[in-house]
Amino acid sequence: MSACGVLAWNDGHLVWDDYLDHRDFALAEGSERVVRHFVDWRDLESVRRLGTAPADGDRFLRIARELLDSGILVARDSERECRERDILAAWGTWGPPTRAFHFSTRSHAGTRYATAAEIDELLSVKFAQDPPPQALRSVPGAGHVPLPAADGATATWWRCSGCGGADASSATPSFR
User: Fold this and answer.
1) In whole angstroms, what is the distance from residue 65 CA to residue 57 CA?
2) What is the pLDDT of residue 5?
3) For residue 51, what are the domain limits?
């Protein structure tokens, strides 16, 4: 099984996130058993033993072949396995979450970035179709708390704890 991917449940579907090649796959029913079978190196045909009937074994073998074709299962000494081995050696002490974060947040060399105008257009369409949740909420029966002035220099709500309670505007900034 590929060492450079993450399995997660999403809306009732098992999804494989291949963070090296930025691909996601919704896996078919029965795929979880097949993936678990290949946690250790095994012959592809060995997956047939998961079935209780010959038709089950054939189905599990079809799933295994699909997983192999999509890069979720990795053949020993294949190009993908060699690539993963190098990545694991380089990132080994950092652990799987760090490796997944790094590779899933990078961009490929040919990535085209949207312009500010394109992003504005995409967001305006998205907001019209699917408005975001409210940033603030109201609780029925709860009182309202007046907020301080927006100008931090004139606000009196913030006090400097290290300068005898003087206003922030009269305090000398200090850093640790």
Assistant:
1) 12
2) 92
3) 6-104
